[in-house]
Write a structure and sequence with these properties.
It comes from Bacillus glycinifermentans. By secondary structure, the chain is of the alpha+beta class. It is built from 6 helices and 9 strands. It has a 7-stranded antiparallel sheet with strand order 1-5-6-3-2-4-9, with no helix packed on it. The chain has a two-stranded antiparallel sheet with strand order 7-8.
Length: about 240
């Protein structure tokens, strides 16, 4: 409680009480005036902040748009390089994965050819970590999947494996995804996927490099097409 308030409570007939009462009235008037001024000031500040925010947002938006536009443009140097590639990626794909395409570890910069894991002295033969794998028999009912439209493909993963865990090259992100069910058992090389193309890897891959028997008892490559044609796998819709 303030000294003024305490003074007003001394006594109704006391001098201090009267002085406190008069002073309290002045304080109340001053408080009302001050409150009005404060409210007016707050409104001015809020209006200024809103205006300032609008300008700031506009500037940020403009800067972001300029940055995005710059990032969407391929430099003359990069364009000249890509023109020499046999299978150049789209502009959008190149800009999205520029750090991968520009890395000579993954792509020959003169031709655009892919440097797969296990080549050029890399120990991860056929994409397996340190080239290590085991022979595994895939049993009927097992669901496997893959990205890609190549009928001669021979790589699968357990259905539902993340894209990143497969360590695929950038263009595979635009390829169709297909899920399969094993109908007849067949053997594969199974092992952990080596990190590559700046993807984490560490998933499991099934490499169907081992041969299968066709309907006539002949040995055939276990490609996607042959596995389908000879009834070893079926597509899950």
């Amino acid at each position: 409680m303030s000294d003024i308030a305490r003074g007003s409570e001394v006594g109704a007939g006391g001098t201090l009480a009267r002085k406190g009462s008069d002073f309290s009235g002045h304080v109340n008037d001053a408080h009302k005036a001050s409150k009005a001024k404060i409210q007016e000031s707050i409104q001015r500040v809020e209006k200024g902040i809103e205006t300032g925010k609008g300008v700031r947002k506009g500037n940020i938006r403009s800067d972001v748009e300029k940055t995005n536009k710059a990032e969407r443009v391929i430099s003359e140097t990069d364009r000249a390089k890509l023109n020499g590639w046999k299978y150049a990626p789209s502009d959008e794909l190149y800009l999205k994965y520029k750090h991968v395409y520009d890395n000579p570890k993954y792509f020959k910069q003169e031709t655009g050819e892919i440097n797969w894991p296990g080549t050029n002295g890399d120990p991860n033969i056929d994409g397996f970590v340190n080239g290590e794998y085991k022979i595994e028999t895939l049993k009927p009912g097992l669901e496997i999947d893959r990205f890609g439209s190549n009928p001669g493909g021979q790589y699968f993963s357990p259905a539902g494996s993340s894209y990143e865990s497969r360590a695929l090259p950038p263009h595979m992100s635009e390829q169709p995804y297909t899920k399969y069910r094993v109908v007849k058992e067949f053997q594969v090389r199974s092992g952990k996927i080596a990190p590559w193309f700046d993807e984490v890897g560490e998933g499991i891959q099934y490499n169907s490099q081992l041969e299968i028997v066709d309907d006539f008892g002949n040995m055939q490559k276990a490609t996607v097409k042959n596995l389908l044609d000879f009834g070893y796998i079926e597509i899950i819709e």
